[in-house]
Amino acid sequence: MAADPRPRVLFVEDERSITEPFSRALAREGFEPIVAHTAAEALARFAEAEPDVVLLDISLPDGDGRDICRELRGRSDVPIIMLTARGTETDRIVGLELGADDYVVKPFSGGEVIARLRAILRRARRPAAGGAPEAARPAPVTIGPLTVDPGSRRATLDEADLTLSRKEFDLLAELVAHAGTVVSREDLMSRVWDENWFGSTKTLDVHIRWLRQKLDDDPSAPRFIHTVRGVGFRFTAPDEWAP
To answer: pTM value?
Structure first.
């Protein structure tokens, strides 16, 4: 049996003092690093290599990494970890809002980033190749005008497809799977992000806010997502739906 191919990591960073040693570390840990030093090179390499995950610096000589993140997210659902020397909460939220899956502040620990890469790839690849057997697929759930089908990874609202990122869909599916019951913040982070998540739960709040916007759900008078302060969130159950 042939060995699984090494995961391809598109590493977008203009400082060679970072790319060279960390690329060697990635190779030692079983990854295939593909380095790009500019925004233009990043887009070209992405199209050529079809990487499994992207490590993306914000400050590039010919552009802003956040623009690259937005461009890549428009093309693909590939996991993206943003690298930056700017570690304010606002910077983190902006990166997440653009579709990044994780955010690492420089200087970073190589071991920590590699652990994050593995966690993200494990989460992204959790569904078996070819999909689960039909009998094992969760049934679609309909709550009022919303239908969520975990098997096809499709969600519709008023019969119109919702455009959701991978994490947004995973979070929605997790909430819907437990509709009517409270799911703690810790359980959501563990199930949707990974038990090895290193950051704060701020990313959960950001993704909840995006879901509410896409579901046209007013947090002051929610139809779907209810905040249970100090605990987590509860999704409206099918039998309690009220338009």
So the answer is: 0.61
